[in-house]
Amino acid sequence: MSGVRGWCPGALRPMESGDGWITRIRPHGGRLSPSQAAGIANAARDHGNGLIDLTGRANLQIRGVTPDSHAPLIEALRALDLIDADIEAEQRRNIIVTPFADPETDGLAAKLEAALTASALPLPAKFGFAVDTGPAPVLWDIPADIRLERGADGRLILRADGCPHGAPCHSAAEALTLAGWFLAAGGAPEGRGRMAGLIARGTPPADAILTPAPALPTPVPGPVPQGMLVGLEFGQIEAEILAALAALGPLRMTPWRMLLIEGAGRVPALPGLIAEPDDPRLRLRSCTGAPGCRHAHAPTRALARQLAPHLPKGRVLHVSGCAKGCGWPRAADLTLTATPEGFDLIRGGCASDIPQPRGLPPARLPEVL
Ligand code: SF4
């Protein structure tokens, strides 16, 4: 099948970054068994630089992979059942699953994965699905074109992104029918387009009459009925720490830079883990910076850590090694972009937006914040 247009990085098609190749893993159903998580930790140590990102779509990325280490890495991940048959299947399997999944949710996610893997629908590269059928929707602000959710009466509904109502749903296969409707209705001319754009231009899909259940706010680190949610500083975890978490139980991925450790009652204090909901490090964003990235004009993460206590309550701080802004490609309350002359400050913008003031020395930054 070659109908999928554009591309997204994956495991089979890594992406180049300042510190080597990034190899992205899509855990099946958004969950890793303890042996899979421990295997990823080993693979990241053996074939990458030992750093693993948790992405905004609840995927993992092994960093620092090289042209020589990529093939053995893929073999190690294949043995853990984490590699798809080919690049197209990997790209189509773009599903995010609520970490608060019940057995019905797990079953729906598995059936949707199987249907998408077998499908020949020429969906755009970034076209994605959300299985958000836990006790209440939590993925409301995470991009997804087709959403399986609970209706206000607890029934399963299928909702096109951008449409306030969903249709009654009886099986995961109906999500593919809706994806087929999207294509037939002209949602992806020239292979590009998103569901919300199509809905904004015209008629909603048939039977979209049911109201979704009220959404819950984004969770914070701490105990939850399924176990313990733990935050990751900068959305990243070292292989040793991932191995330590794997020993505590199965892991559920989240899109909020947190992992859910199933069945855990407590988590030991480990470097880079955030256990408290009011920890200011939850509001830090930063790329690799120097010396890991050759494009960086300064170290970023140590500086962000130093500035965390000075960060006004509720504000998000992004420290970027250059104007590319890989660590947070959106606006933040405060962005510090490193330049050869010092740090530029951008308020309410991205790393490449117009700064005021420019060229600040690191020593002045606490006072400026
Ligand atoms: S923002 Fe610049 S310095 Fe940071 S990782 Fe991207 S390219 Fe490197």
UniProtKB/TrEMBL annotation:
The keyword Secreted does not apply. It comes from the Bacteria. This is Precorrin-3B synthase. It comes from Paracoccus methylarcula. Residues 14-79 form the Nitrite/Sulfite reductase ferredoxin-like domain. Keywords: 4Fe-4S, Heme, Iron, Iron-sulfur, Metal-binding, Oxidoreductase. GO terms for molecular function: 4 iron, 4 sulfur cluster binding; heme binding; metal ion binding; oxidoreductase activity. The keyword RNA-binding does not apply. PROSITE patterns: NIR_SIR (PS00365). The gene is cobG.
